[in-house]
Design brief:
The chain is mainly α and 202 residues long. Helices cover 62% and strands 0% of the residues. It has eleven helices and no strands. The radius of gyration is 17 Å and the shape is globular. It starts with 10 loop residues before the first helix and ends with a helix. The relative contact order is 0.08.
């Protein structure tokens, strides 16, 4: 275990996270995400070994938050992508990515290229980045790019369904226009129903 996690491990959260993230590659320590975010802001060097699930999140959040050019970020991401081993790696890092003004197109090209990756979680981070940063790319058909990446692979299909649900909130007619597998469409429709129920309960 890397020493900066000392005092941050929550055993109950570890048991919960282990069941949820289903990381078969790296052990889960049980460090909560807000604490990992704080560490990402506090630590200066990323020169530490990846020994656990949280190490990938920490390095990814350090990359995401750094005030540097996307050329630098992409070089660091290229090294990290093969280490992604669970859906939350893709989701947390992809959605947290900060892009400096003027670098939006470079970031778009990079994350769009990941939609063709054979690495499941690299492909998923591309999907998550694109729909969570969609307001940067109003001139592009982001949803069509994402739905074209639809796959029978569970974590890709679920990311596509999630994206459809997010775009549906802005334009309900998208559900009629999308071209995805029947399975992904059903998952998207379920996410939409869940979203409607949640909205009504508040």
């Amino acid at each position: 275990m890397n020493p900066f996690y000392s005092g941050l491990i929550d055993e109950k959260y570890r048991d919960f996270s282990t069941k949820i993230v289903k990381d078969d590659t790296l052990p889960v320590l049980g460090v909560r995400i807000p604490d990992i975010r704080k560490l990402a802001k506090k630590l200066e060097s990323m020169d530490f070994p990846i020994l656990c699930h949280e190490d990938v999140l920490l390095k990814g959040l350090m990359i995401a938050s750094r005030k540097t050019t996307f050329s630098d970020k992409s070089a660091m991401l290229d090294e990290l992508l093969p280490c992604l081993s669970a859906w939350d790696h893709s989701d947390i890092i992809g959605s947290a990515m900060k892009i400096m003004k003027g670098d939006e197109e470079d970031a778009f090209r990079y994350f769009s290229s990941l939609l063709k990756s054979e690495m499941i979680y690299a492909k998923r981070i591309g999907i998550v980045y694109l729909f969570t940063h969609r307001t940067l790319y109003r001139d592009k058909d982001i949803l069509s790019l994402i739905t074209a990446a639809d796959s029978d692979e569970y974590y890709i299909a679920m990311a596509v369904a999630w994206a459809i649900q997010v775009f549906w909130k802005e334009d309900p007619s998208v559900i009629e226009r999308i071209r995805v597998s029947d399975r992904t469409r059903k998952r998207a429709e379920q996410k939409i129903r869940d979203s409607i129920r949640e909205r009504r309960s508040h």
